[in-house]
Amino acid sequence: MAFLVSHPDEVKIVSQRFGLGAISIDRYLELNGYKAIQKTLAMEPDTIINEIKNSGLRGRGGAGFNTGLKWSFVPKQAPKPKYVLCNGDESEPGTCKDRLIFEHDPHAVIEGAMIAAFAVGAHTAYIYIRGEYRYLSLIMQKALADAYARGFLGKNIFGSGYDLDIYWHGGAGAYEVGEESALMESLEGKRGIPRIRPPFPAVVGLWGGPTVINNAETLASIPHIILGGADWYASLGPPKNGGTRLFCLSGHLERPGVYELPMGYNLKKMIFEVGGGIPGSRKLKAVVPGGSSTPCLTADEIDVPMDFDSLMKRGSMLGSGGVIALDESTCIVQFALRTMKFYQHESCGWCIPCREGTDWLKKTLARFHAGGGIRKDIDNMLYLSENMLGRTFCPLGDAAAMPTIAFVKKFRSEFEAHLEARGCPFEKAGVVEQLPVLA
Amino acid sequence: MKFSPQFEQRFEEMVSHYPTRRSVLVPTLLYAQDETGYLSDEVIRELAERLELTELEVRNVISYYSMLTTRPRGKYHVQVCTNIACLLRGGEEIFEHCRQTLGIGGGETTSDGLFSLAEVECIGACSWAPAVQVNYDFHENLTREEMDKILGHYKKKGTQ
Amino acid sequence: MADVNITIDSKPVRAPGGTLLIEACKKAGIEVPSFCYYPNLSLQGACRMCLVKIEKMPKLQTACTTMITEGMTVTTDSPEIHQARKGMVELLLGNHPLDCPVCDAGGECELQDMTFSYGAAESKFIDIKNHRDEQQWSPVVYFDRPRCILCYRCVRICGEGMDVWALGVENRGVNSIIAPNRQDHLECEECGMCIDICPVGALTSGAYRYKTRPWEMKHVDTTCTHCADGCKTTLGVRRAPAGMEIVRGDNRDKSGINGDFLCIKGRYAFDFAHHQQRIKQPLIRKNARLTPASWEEALDLVGKRFAQVRDQEGGTRIGVIGSNRTTNEENYLLQKFARLVLKTNNVDHHRTADFPAFAAALAGRGDRTATMREVYHASAILLIGNDPTNRHPLLAWQIRNNVRLHRSRLYVINSEPIKLRRQASFFAQPPAGSEARAVEFLAGEEGAADALATSSTPAQRWRDLREKLRSEQNLIIIFGSEIRGRDLEKLVKFGSTLAQAKFVCLSDYANSRGAADMGLYPDLLPGYLPLNQGTKFRDDWGELPAATGLDLGEMIGIANEGGLRALYVVGSNPLGRLPIDPFLLSKTFIVVQDMFPTETAAIADVVLPAANAYEKSGTFTNTCGDLQLVRKAGEITGTKPDFEIIVRLASAAGFDIRKLVPFGKRGTHADMGQSRGAQAGEADRHAVWLEAHGLEPKLSPFDPMAILDEIERLVPGYEVSRSNLLAGNDQHTTVEGPGMWHDPALIIPARDDLFTSGTLGRYSRLLNSVIEHRQGVPAGEVVAG
User: Fold this and answer.
1) CA-wise closest residue to A323 among A157, A67, A93
2) Residue A358: is its pLDDT beyond 80?
3) Higher pLDDT pick, C783 / A402
4) How many CB pairs under 8 A join B and C?
């Protein structure tokens, strides 16, 4: 069970029921649960979609696409059934927010999926939860059963004449399945290899039918927007970056945890105030602002609002909300290696640049970190990463290349120090060994 | 091939949730593995037949997902996250500690079949790092001492 | 879709909207590189080699997955694109072993070519390459993972193309590996399509690996000698101590009726030619033992003996059994030899389809026969009987891929659940052996519906089937030997009520159709002309024996009573294939002309070692009637083409061979090759010599082209374009003659499957090793005793 934390700057919307027992359907109903769907059922689908569009809600999975706009791509008339698919395959290193939503507020995800399904005219939705989250799957299965028992799901929900089934679906360990087209493949019982796009899932998705795929946090935000209104939600963040989001603070921080902060919240404040700053007297070296795929920011670059557009301008990304702080004791080469080891392990292997590129970079980084580096490795790593960038079949290649480019470019001197020391200067100094294991 | 009544009931129900039978494959493989410990040739044959797939197709899928295995593991599968957030807070030390305590390397199983050890990718416990999953149970904010207690707990549970 | 205008490299291109950009580029003469894209297989977008710049798109796009739209502006080469491709090649080379010097693909490798094109000359990779040991998956297929670039062509051709689905992808990331369907080995049709389509040397064949370098081979286009489908195959040949050795078969130029396709037999089963039991010297029975003799002695003996029997007892005491595997020219020549030289109509062959009845049923409507190419394009196909997957692999490929790529409707009537039912939009299963009954029902016999009803196909379904068929236009009706005689007439009658329906009559050996077309019948001249309608031939050849001859069974039947004094068996093994008691032939002078010491050769008085179809030139007609060239590839010293042997026998029998082969011009003295020694392949060497001296090859009496001239002139339905034929194209022949209704019992199907091929298969080590691999028991291969 994950630990809950709080900070006065938090604006609790998605997390408002955390710790309040909303796992029980009765408690959820007491806490305004299933009101938004009832309100929605009386609205025109187009009105709902516009409301979500105007709220400025952007996908919380990482890509940050406007949710309402995504829904609007679903054709009104389609020869094949339409679907809604909740992406709960949270696996981006640094990210642990969906886990809290499923643990504390599963009905909010269900309700969000219901609204999405009604808005696009789907009669079936699936909630895909990663295989490792077995206890959350049990919670979700119970929540769905409870919703069915109350008649909130199934035929003629809330007397509206609208039928909707929502089912749980589970994964079995694959980061790549978090990519939306690979997610559909996995749900169809296949290897999680992404699909060729176009066509996009909104037009040709599950079993060929139009499919809306939204992150769990995105869907959990929907009922609040319906009840609170698009304007209210949009006003919480900077333009085009509506609402709040769950930031997962981790790494070298005094108070790591998941905090719900308004979009555009200052990263420096997030690190030093919300997260409590760096333990001991050590200095901050870098921050990975949005999960392992996002290029790191140096300590000098973190005075930046945490929203999609501002980070883009800084050459990074808001990503999935995983904020990882690295203090001065961190060996960037080791960190880059561990990041690449992850992508090498998780690459689906479909396309050449990702499959071969991640393996090559991992090998080079491993040798380099162990002291076997040669000078041209540094430029080679940049060259390789740049050859992957924008040329892979799906974004995983970019996700592996972008942070590597940032590590090499921003911390080149650390790479050079490895050459000179013929090994890791940090390990030789014993810093890594001395790293305290925090309770 | 015999699975538990719960498995059969869940299987029947899940199959009705999708337009194609093979859609249940991934979660079903995991449930089957939970019951049989690993996905034996027999399990693969059985599920292939039920879902109208070739055994090759089933194997292709199994080998893609890192939680699925065609070889037996320990009764308690200790999965230590060493990914970046855990790395920064001692994930590798925890892994090393488990190696020494259990006397096995990653991917290996203790001779009594009680424990197997694996270094795994992010398990979604970044804010509570370092973290370990033993089978499906999360253990977070770990120290070496904490890890000893956890392993001791399972050892006791497993030998009772 | 309507045409759209796009611009590729500043060049205006017009193509149907929705065309793949990579194809539009090809059409414009611009080659966009790719590993994973392969025409007619599903799209992958995996290799990223075909990246191009499309205006208004921020990133480079894959040309293999982009469909063209109006106004699209594309750049296919620029420094950025060049670098992207170079980058991909470099990445591949990171783990790819550079064992090109020993790799089978070396010199024919797409990765080598790409590396050359994009200049990834500098090796940036200094780490240890990932390694896995090579695996043998079957007698045919070897897999070398490190060389694999994961283009997934093999997986797709096996699944989508072959409908076998024996290959998959296991693991993920850099550990991804092509996996066979039985964990450590393959259980499949062993067609070798995966090997052929592999752009690198990851999949190699047991038949070819490590045997030669590609540039050491000469490549010869010819027609496969196994089943009746007539696949074009390119044979790679190399000098060997005893002539020319065939080391490889493929169809990489895709120019034949089979496109990419070849089955195991076409691709690998050429090895029978080098079987150690191949007869390489004439044999004459002396003191009850077959004893090696010279060609001169053997030919002289046979020629004189034949002449003696003819002159003393009459031609009717001589029988001739022809072959389903010799060329049209040889078959034509053989029956002409029988009728003119031996003065007998006792000519027959092992009949596997009722072509004379087909001719009779068509009654002159030869245009109603479909080509093999048409089977791939027809909007609907009705398949009655047979199991093409096993007996007509190309036909099955054409049908499957027509259904897959053109959404053709396939109707199958078969009492067995044959594999092609998987592609069928309608599968009707009558009781065992009642395919002919189904034809009667189609032709209008209402009462047959009840007799046809089975649990899977009740009577109503049969009526539905007939209704659906009646609404089909351009239906191709393909039928196996289940349909013979008058049943065939009913089927053709039914087909004739449909708009534009065409037919394919399935036979079993490489040139069964040719044997039938060329008149290897006791009562039919070439072109299915009854003996009494042979004016054309009489005008050309002179007088012919008038009485109907004996069929194969009748010849054997009278042999023991002294009715058959001599029997000339060419390329056939009746004793091995048919239930004949050898004792019945003990009083007959038997001459066998073949490659191997078959059961029939074992009782012969003289055995003449013949060349096979890969060792001579001529033409074959496939089961559809497509005429194709057979070209000489291999050579075994000591053997001779059947054509040459027949001409020499005629000469030895004292016959003026000018009346047999219309060679040379008036007054030209023919050189029969004696001046260059009587060695194997003489006719062809002779042809080479003639050509080198600026002379027409058909100046030689051994040149089959001289007879092809006559065939084109005299055989109805064979008036084809010679220039197209010589260019290597298939030319459709039609069935025109009046035909004949024979006893249906004369048809004896060969019952070969994918891994057997009559006599040839018994002497193919490769085919036998596959049978053993599949069954885990030794196959009936003939081994040296």
Assistant:
1) A93
2) yes
3) A402
4) 27
Q: What does the pLDDT read at residue C667?
A: 32
Q: In the prediction, which pLDDT does C780 show?
A: 56
Residue C503 distance to chain B (closest CA, Å): 36
Suggest the residue from B34, B127, B141, B150 to mutate for an interface test with chain A (most A CBs closer than 10 A). Answer: B127
Interchain CB distance below 8 Å, A256 and B128: yes
Specify burial of residue B159 (Cβ count, 10 A radius: 0-12, 13-18, 19+). exposed
C-facing residues of A in 349-378 (CB < 8 A) are: 349-353, 355-360, 363-364, 367, 374, 376
For the domain made up of A25-235, give the CATH fold: Rossmann fold (3.40.50)
Identity of the residue numbered C656: D
| pLDDT of the residue at C694 | 55
The amino acid at C668: T
Identify the pLDDT of residue A1: 52
Structural contact between residues C481 and C353, judged by C-beta atoms closer than 8 angstroms: yes
Q: What is the pLDDT of residues A232-262, one digit of tens each?
A: 999 999 999 999 999 999 999 999 999 999 9
Domains in chain C, please, with CATH? 3-77 (3.10.20.740), 94-205 (3.30.70.20), 283-353+512-732 (3.40.50.740), 355-505 (3.40.228.10)
C171 touches chain B (CB under 8 A): yes
Domains and CATH numbers, chain B: 5-64 (1.10.10), 76-158 (3.40.30.10)
**Are A244-327 and A332-428 equal in CATH topology?**
no
* Whole-angstrom distance, CA of residue C344 vs CA of residue C314: 8
The DSSP-derived string for C294-349 is -HHHHHHHHHHHHHHHHHHH-GGGEEEE--SSS-HHHHHHHHHIIIIIS----EE-
Q: How far C179 CA sits from the closest chain B CA (Å)? A: 8
pLDDT 10s digits, A2-56: 678 999 999 999 999 999 999 999 999 999 999 999 999 999 999 999 999 999 9
Domain A332-428 has CATH 1.10.10.200: no
Using an 8 Å CB-CB cutoff, list chain C residues near B59.
Answer: 168, 170, 179, 183
Q: C168 to chain B: which residues are within 8 Å by CB?
A: 56-57, 59-60
Query: Distance between CA atoms of C458 and B21, rounded to whole angstroms?
Result: 28
Q: Scan residues 104-133 of C and list those with Cβ closer than 8 Å to A.
A: 124-128, 130
Residues 62-81 of A with CB under 8 A from B: 81
Q: What is residue C758's predicted lDDT score, i.e. its pLDDT?
A: 93
**Positions in chain C short of pLDDT 70:** 664-699, 777-785
B114 to chain A, any CB pair closer than 8 A? The answer is: no
- The residue extents of the domains of chain A are 25-235, 244-327, 332-428
Residue A101 is which amino acid? I
Nearest-by-Cβ selection for A172 from B30, B141, B142: B30
pLDDT in tens, C490-500: 999 999 999 88
Say what the pLDDT of residue A433 is. 41
Q: Which of A129, A217, A260, A338 is most worth mutating to test chain B (most B CB atoms within 10 A of its CB)?
A: A338
Q: Which of C60, C87, C150 lies at the smallest CB-CB distance from A349?
A: C150
The set of long-range contacts for B96-100, using a CB threshold of 8 Å and a minimum separation of 24, is B97/B144, B97/B147, B98/B132, B98/B147, B98/B151
Show the tokens assigned to A233.
């939600």
What burial class does residue A382 get, using C-beta atoms within 10 Å of its C-beta: 0-12 exposed, 13-18 middle, 19+ buried? Answer: middle
Q: What fold is seen in the domain A244-327?
A: Ubiquitin-like (UB roll) (3.10.20)
> What tokens were used for B123?
């398990």
Measured in angstroms, the CA of A230 and the nearest CA of chain B are apart by 31
Q: Which residues from B are below 8 Å from C when comparing CB atoms? A: 54-57, 59-60, 63-64
Q: How many CB atoms lie within 10 A of CB C741?
A: 15
